[in-house]
Design brief:
998 residues; mainly alpha; 5-stranded mixed sheet; 45 helices
């Protein structure tokens, strides 16, 4: 008798055995069905060993209630208590799978399938499963027989009699037997169709790889041939009817539910292609049209049902194509891009719970293994296994991945697959999501043997294994390349030189021999420096491979490392600053300009390492001027002073280029892609401010060297063109005007001589041969052009503009802005030209016609001979000139009344015109998009080639690098050019309407 207020001893024992609802369990134990064994201690111990004791006990009572009579109940109870194998198997199933419990209650005699314990029962194969399914005569009985077979697999799985790999293999064997049984039923239902054709069923995916889940689509491909002289088209129609019927037998929902969906979408052309093809049709498709992922899928192709000879011919015929897939252009990037696309398509709220597709999940292991198989399987047939774990073992044995890495991946894969199996087993539903419910998590943890703190231990183990997979996935492909050139422990296998060469070629390296030499120089030896390089290089190689020119990236990295290798902070920066190594890899492999700038002063690599990105943020003009003027003040002469200013310019150009390159790549911080307009503005502002600061420092150096503190004339530099508009690119000259005004009491001739000497000396010093890039000063926009004086007084400018000014000069002055020298003189110059560039009531009709005439002449005369006008960023259709002239015409006509138009910058002027209602918002957006794109193309060409250009490069690698900068992945250069043409074509339509009023 239980004392009121105290728990019974049974209640306490139930808690101790893992029950979460002991009161309900007590009531179940007191039920009539369990009366004969309720006091037997064996029962409680066995229930406590299950994944969910409450579920197991409830299922046992249901099963007893479902027995047809007292005799059957006693038989079950007697066997349960006396036979430990049945007890462990049956209760294990009842505690792990509500779905199989439902099956047992519908078919209460099926528990007998768990009693047998013969040798063949331990590891049944396809033959044994076929024997057990042989009595099925329709889809319903096939489902019952299938569940009975599944019951035995699951029982041995939850009891630990077979491991996760054996479970997956048996599930694939059962699927094979089921497909054969379904095809037999379909053939029996249509004997005429069966007689007209040969049909082979090729398993793909996990079924083909002999590693199936409990609940998964069974991926197949069908191959058909005509027999007995049947016309091919009729034979294929018959084969299609058989295949369709076979799929329905497995997939349709009946009173016994479904088996699993049969998915034929991996076939050529997917769901849009014919369900059944001949072997020759398959071959023609794969030879001509197949994508990289389709060859990757064929890794697991295995004939499982139907005509065996035809199925084996299919595999034998396509195998050579599979093992040459790595020779395809952009093979590795294609595979990696497919993986990234899979992750990107996972709903944001599910990424962290995805066992299969999420980062560090099962798919990461499978993709990495398949990638290595495809690269090296052509030469090494030992790697040609469709089973992930077998292939992983073979890769380790051949030295294609490290043995320790292979063991860790094997452990992680087995754990993750076990989680997946137990998740699906509970309801026999297809899922790869870690549950949120604590009860489900507890059952899952206990099913994996985690009993002390099931939820906490499960979470810890899961995160540990996904962390291992994430880490190894990043380096798995690249680490053995280092082992191939480094000292290894005795007995450790290494990549052969030929295998290393194959892998580097697959990664996109054009000179694998040189790449291996670079790796050897960086990573060989026993120094601490070499050890850190061996840690860094596997990931760096991946980032280099993600670029258009991996060879250049690796070579420049070697040069930078050799220049800074003895500097204590360099490798520590790359190792410890998470962003520094990736930023460096991106910058070094993006083209010539940034690496050239860096190699002239390698210590600038430190700019890449600020964790918050501040190191790459361009500095403002005031800060730049302060540094340059301070350096000029410390110099002994003008040459040294300007050399110091050019050194600052070189460093800051590198900072800007690096920020632009890094910002152009999708990262974890900018997963939706960079803001193209913001990057254009960043470069334009940064280079323009830097040019202005450099001119200010050069002017100070020249004046100090020639005249001390005071120049005989006041002197100002006026920025023009892109310089005045804050839109300079990396390769732009500095368009300027020079204006001076004699100091009080100074003769005009003396003042003019001094001003001209200043200009001449500034131009000379900024172009002196040096390791720093020159700064070219272009004063051709001055009055009278090249025929006029380089420097004029303010009075001379006023006289010229009053008497001789042409409309194109007023247009050019829209961009005028003081950039260096005497600030008051600069302001006076602006006051002088404002009435000219913003004329009251706007320019007249004659001036508008003249501007249009000039523009038309420029389009016909200045476009280089042979240039494609649809791809010329400056003068081509819808390019920079089109947009800028359209905006400037609006300024000349309306800026007198619209203050927002009084700006030297194109994009703000366009926005102001839109705000003033002078241009519809949609058309303004079209012009803005085209201008941004054309500017990005010019910047890209300079970054990639190291010299300015207005057209896309013709060299393949350079064109691909421009594409990468613009956000186009490998193999999408054609898309880039088409998008450019489409964008600029739309812009030209707007220009025709607004500028030409056509």
């Amino acid at each position: 008798m239980t004392v009121p207020g105290r728990r019974s001893s049974t209640f306490t024992r139930l808690l101790r055995h893992g029950f979460t609802a002991p009161s309900a369990a007590e009531r179940l134990l007191d039920s009539a069905e369990l009366a004969p064994i309720r006091t037997d201690p064996v029962l409680l111990d066995a229930l406590g060993a299950t994944a969910d004791p409450d579920l197991a006990l409830h299922g046992l009572v249901r099963l007893l209630e479902a027995q047809p009579g007292a005799t059957a109940r006693h038989e079950l109870l007697d066997t349960l208590i006396s036979a430990k194998p049945l007890r462990d198997r049956l209760l294990g199933i009842l505690g792990a799978s509500a779905a199989l419990t439902d099956h047992l209650t519908r078919h209460p005699g099926d528990w007998h399938a768990l009693v047998t314990y013969e040798q063949r029962d331990l590891h049944p194969g396809v033959t044994e499963f076929e024997r057990q399914l042989a009595q099925a005569h329709d889809p319903v009985s096939l489902r019952v027989a299938y569940r009975r077979c599944l019951l035995s697999i699951a029982a041995r799985d939850v009891c630990g009699t077979i491991d996760v790999a054996e479970t997956a293999a048996e599930l694939a064997d059962l699927a094979t037997a089921t497909l054969r049984a379904a095809l037999a039923l379909a053939s029996a239902a249509a004997p005429d169709d069966d007689a007209r054709c040969k049909l082979a069923v090729i398993a793909m995916g996990k079924c083909g790889g002999h590693e199936l889940n409990y609940v998964s689509d069974v991926d197949v491909i069908f191959v058909g041939e005509a027999v007995n002289g049947t016309e091919e088209s009729k034979a294929l129609q018959a084969a299609t009817r058989l295949a369709s019927h076979m799929m329905r037998i497995c997939s349709d929902v009946t009173v016994e539910g479904t088996i699993w969906p049969v998915d034929a979408n991996l076939r050529p052309e997917g769901r849009n292609g014919p369900l059944v093809r001949t072997l020759s049709s398959h071959l023609a498709y794969y030879q001509r049209w197949a994508k990289t992922w389709e060859f990757q899928a064929l890794l697991k192709a295995r004939p499982v049902a139907g005509d065996r000879d035809l199925g084996e011919s299919y595999v034998a015929t396509l195998a050579p194509l599979v093992w040459h897939a790595a020779e395809r252009d952009n093979f590795v990037p294609d595979v990696q891009e497919m993986r990234r696309r899979v992750i990107a398509n996972i709903p944001a709220g599910e990424v962290e719970r995805e066992l299969k597709l999420g980062p560090g999940g099962l798919r990461d292991v499978e993709f990495a293994v398949q990638l290595l198989q495809l690269v090296h399987g052509r030469a090494d047939t030992a790697l040609r296994s469709g089973t992930t774990l077998d292939a992983l073992k073979a890769l380790a044995a051949g030295g294609y991945i490290g043995r320790v890495d292979a063991v860790q991946l094997d452990d992680a894969y087995r754990f993750l697959r076990s989680m997946e199996h137990r998740l699906q087993l509970y309801r026999l539903r297809r899922t790869h999501l870690l549950p949120k419910d604590e009860g489900d998590l507890r059952r899952l943890g206990r099913s994996l043997g985690l009993r002390t703190d099931p939820i906490g231990e499960l979470t810890l183990e899961w995160r540990r294994h996904t962390g291992v997979v994430r880490r190894l996935h990043e380096k798995l492909f690249y680490r053995p390349l280092l082992d191939a050139v480094a000292q290894l422990a005795p007995g450790e296998a290494r990549l052969s030189p030929e295998a290393a060469r194959e892998r580097l070629i697959a990664l996109g390296y054009e000179d694998p021999a040189a790449a291996l030499r670079h790796l050897e120089a960086l990573a060989s030896g026993v120094t601490r420096r070499a050890a850190i390089q061996r840690t860094l290089l596997p990931v760096l190689l991946g980032w280099f491979a993600d670029s258009a020119d991996p060879d250049a990236g690796l070579l420049t990295f070697r040069r930078v490392s050799e220049a800074l290798g003895k500097t204590p902070w360099y490798l520590r920066l790359l190792r410890d600053e998470g962003a520094a190594a990736e930023n460096l890899a991106r910058v070094l492999s993006a083209g010539r300009l940034a690496p050239d700038l860096l190699m002239r002063a390698p210590e600038a690599v430190a700019l890449l390492g600020d964790g918050d990105g501040a190191g790459l943020e361009p500095r403002g003009r005031a800060q730049l001027e302060q540094e340059i003027l301070a350096a000029v003040g410390r110099a002994e002469n003008a040459e040294q002073a300007v050399a110091a200013a050019r050194g600052v310019r070189r460093r800051e150009l590198f900072r800007t280029a690096a920020a632009d390159i890094v910002g152009s790549y999708d990262t974890a911080d900018t997963p939706t892609g960079p803001d193209q307009g913001a990057l254009v503005d960043l470069v334009g502002d940064a280079v323009s401010d830097l040019t202005a600061a450099t001119l200010a420092g050069t002017l100070r150096a020249v004046v100090r060297a020639g005249w001390g503190d005071t120049l005989p004339t006041r002197f100002a530099v006026i920025g023009m063109g892109r310089f005045g508009g804050h839109e300079l690119g990396y390769g732009s000259d500095a368009d300027v005007l020079f204006v001076h005004q004699p100091q009080d009491g100074v003769d005009e001739r003396e003042a003019a001589d001094a001003a001209n000497k200043v200009v001449a000396e500034m131009r000379r010093l900024l172009q002196l041969p040096s390791t720093d890039p020159p700064l070219l000063i272009d004063a051709d926009l001055r009055p009278e052009g090249k025929s006029g004086p380089l420097v004029r007084t303010l009075t001379s400018y006023a006289a010229y503009y009053r008497r001789w000014s042409l409309v194109w000069e007023a247009q050019a002055l829209l961009r005028a802005e003081p950039v260096a020298g005497d600030e008051e003189l600069g302001r006076r110059f602006i006051d002088l030209i404002d009435p000219l560039r913003y004329p009251a009531e706007g320019i007249g009709d004659d001036a508008v016609l003249e501007i249009r005439r000039l523009k038309a002449r420029m389009e016909s005369e200045r476009l280089p001979r042979g240039a494609d006008k649809t791809l010329h960023a400056k003068l081509g259709r819808g390019g920079l000139s089109d947009v800028e002239w359209t905006v400037q015409l609006l300024q000349l006509r309306h800026a007198w009344a619209e203050p927002g138009l009084r700006t030297t910058r194109t994009r703000p002027a366009l926005a102001a015109a839109c705000a003033a209602g002078l241009i519809p918002a949609e058309e303004a957006a079209i012009l803005d998009e085209a201008w941004i794109l054309a500017t990005r193309v010019r910047n890209a060409v300079m970054l990639v080639r190291g010299r300015a250009g207005d057209t896309f490069p013709s060299q393949t690698r350079e064109l691909a690098a421009v594409g990468r900068y613009l956000g186009y992945g490998p193999g999408h250069v054609g898309d880039m050019l088409e998008d450019y043409r489409r964008t600029t074509r739309r812009a030209r339509t707007v220009v025709e309407e607004l500028f030409y009023e056509a």
